[in-house]
Amino acid sequence: MYSPPFEYVRASSWEEAVAALERGDDDAHVLAGGQSLVPMMMLGLAAPSLLVDVGGAGERTIERRDGALVLSALVRHIELEQSDVVREACPMLSEAVRHIGNVRVRHRGTIGGSLAHAESTAELATVAVAQRATVRVLGPRGRRTVPAAELFVTHLTTSLEPGEVLTGVEFPTAEASGSGSCFLEIARRAGDFAMVEVAATVSVDQEGRCNDVRLVVGAVADRPADVSDAAQALIGARPEQPAVAELARAVADEVEIGPSSHAGEEYRREMVAVLVERAVGAAAERAEP
Ligand SMILES: Cc1cc2nc3c(=O)[nH]c(=O)nc-3n(C[C@H](O)[C@H](O)[C@H](O)COP(=O)(O)OP(=O)(O)OC[C@H]3O[C@@H](n4cnc5c(N)ncnc54)[C@H](O)[C@@H]3O)c2cc1C
């Protein structure tokens, strides 16, 4: 299917992109890597009147600064995958990005596009919530920052206001020593959209007892679910069996599971239990006291 005609503007700065979006109507869209928007246009699911191409709106930068990994929105998935800086500063991001689509998609898709698109199965959304990332936003009323947990409203919907663009993402890196993380997912085939994702971070003290556990389940509902409260049962204990299996069962029994065309609720609930147990176990092994 061919898309209806649309106007095309190439922005050479984020400010120019915001100004172009302001001149457009409600159907003006940002175009980044095009890996979600273009397929939607070809399927007739999106019909923008104006495309504002932000590919040249800024540099594609990956930096460690002031206790954070700071990424420009234009950084491509493949660059996250191949960056030593990302691997050291936020290993969960390196681990998760490899699951996105295929190498062609990862060469074009951007982190800003993935977060702004807010697909409910997006790996980067789950990692952003798990790592307490913050997105940088520019709009007609100026700049602001939004915690990732407040960005995702529901499937394909964010809290970005009309005319706003996402210009960057910050992942805090100042973890206490003795912290390990793990991202796991299950999909029908490698590269398919995930059926269940789990992102776990475990911190242990000198005696090897948990002093912080963060747990986010993705791809089962309309946005990533932060279930860290349930994981507090591990605080003060060693992250070992049977405590980890009990935690996994409790999370799986309580987490909201929405509809999916890939697998039924019962199967996905069981997979939440399996992945939580494995991810918490792996994160604990990586956390050296
Ligand atoms: C075959 C295939 C398999 C895929 N598999 C996966 C997968 O397993 N997991 C996964 O997470 N994704 C998957 N994707 C999607 C891919 O990750 C996309 O790259 C990503 O979702 C969107 O990034 P993009 O840069 O391509 O954005 P685009 O497609 O250009 O834009 C997506 C949306 O975000 C908006 N947008 C883009 N950038 C900005 C910005 N800076 N500010 C504000 N709004 C913006 C656009 O207006 C549009 O609405 C797949 C895609 C394909 C084609």
What is shown here, in short?
With 289 residues, this protein is of the alpha+beta class.
Give the tally of structural domains.
2
Mean of all residue-level pLDDT scores: 95
Small ligands present: flavin-adenine dinucleotide
Outline, from the CA principal axes? globular
Rounded to the nearest angstrom, the radius of gyration is 19 Å
Strand order of the largest sheet: 4-5-10-6-7
Counting DSSP H or I runs of 4 or more residues, the number of helices is 12
Helix content: 25-40%
As a percent range, the share of strand residues is: 25-35%
Taking pLDDT < 50 over at least 5 consecutive residues as the criterion, the unreliable ranges are none
> Distance between the terminal alpha carbons, to the nearest Å?
57 Å
Total beta strand runs: 14
At CATH level 3, the topology of the largest domain is Uridine Diphospho-n-acetylenolpyruvylglucosamine Reductase, domain 3
Oligomeric organization of the protein chains: single chain
Order of helices and strands: EHEHEEEHHHHHHEEHEEEEEEEHHH
Please identify the top-level CATH class of the largest domain. Answer: Alpha Beta
Q: Tell me about the largest β-sheet.
A: 5 strands, antiparallel
Account of the protein in words:
With 289 residues, this protein is α+β, with helices and mostly antiparallel strands. The protein folds into two domains: 174 residues, 2-Layer Sandwich (Uridine Diphospho-n-acetylenolpyruvylglucosamine Reductase, domain 3); 108 residues, CO dehydrogenase flavoprotein, C-terminal domain (Enolase-like, domain 1, 2-Layer Sandwich). It is built from twelve helices and 14 strands. It has a five-stranded antiparallel beta sheet, sandwiched between helices. The structure holds flavin-adenine dinucleotide.
